[in-house]
Amino acid sequence: MRAEPIRNVLTLFALVASSGCDVIYGLERDPPPEFENYDRCGSFLFDEPLRYASIGNPNVVVDGDGNPIGLMPWSWDDARTQCQQRGMDLAVFNDQRELGMGAEDAAWPYWIGQRTIGTVAETVDGCPALTAPSSLHAIACGMVTTANEIGGASCDGQLPPMMEPNVVIGALCETPRPDSIACLGQNPAAVEYFLSDSTLTYDRAKAFCASNDAHLVVVETHEEWLHLSKRTKTEWEKPFWLGSRFDGTTWKTENDCFGTYSWTGGTPGTPANGSCVASKVRVVDDPEEGLSGTVLDGVEPTACSEPQSFALCEID
Hints:
Blueprint: H1 3-19, E1 23-25, E2 52-56, E3 60-62, E4 68-71, H2 76-84, E5 89-90, H3 96-102, E6 110-117, E7 120-123, E8 139-146, E9 149-154, E10 170-174, E11 192-200, H4 202-211, E12 215-216, H5 222-236, E13 240-246, E14 251-253, E15 276-286, E16 291-302, E17 309-315
Parallel strand pairs: 6-10, 13-17
Antiparallel strand pairs: 1-2, 2-10, 3-4, 5-10, 6-7, 6-8, 8-9, 11-17, 12-17, 13-14, 13-15, 15-16
């Protein structure tokens, strides 16, 4: 009786994996944290639609017609690597509310950023978690098994035969919590942005901004993303570089803050697809839907040597 829902989950993750897009969403925050008492490991939630991303087990088994019929095991380490390739890490739940809300758009069981090695519990960000994963294994990797339950499993992603499904089918990624108040973002209307006159390679775009006492734009909040989207449509109408580069493990920004990304194409964090990141724009002309003009779709990995994007600089 449960085969059809699981087949639907497999189909969903197969589509997500093939599209190159992430399922992204955020959590509500109330009341806002007192920034002057900012604690990186605090239990408050960021009101950021780009803060979390749900990704699917990419090890899909298909039949002769290409239809998904099963999944191969997907390890905790491999899931963490894929989160890091997006400029994120596996999510750590700091309280029950975050667990309950964070599970809304993810299919269980999914990996999270917690492990228990013997009797020692650890998290990927060093912050205390809601609860420690436990299992019969010497090393138990954390996973969410139902909407409000954290469990542990063998870190290779193979679950007991009596479980259905008997492999971990997804992972929840999270943008790392900023180390400093300065990286919590600011009102983008108070920030000065300016665009180069021509397309440049990444290094030349970076140098152009530096020569004007600025740096390539680093998107820190959803509010800033909406601001850039509006100005792309009304003013710039051009694709632009973001101030972030892949270092072999994750994405490092020009201002040492954690950037937020809305990946729409390509596989991030793979040098073959580009070690720099640029915005993706498209021209829309759909009178029936009331849409027209240049739309900022998201970002995609881009070869740093390609002079196909403009320098978008910001002065904080």
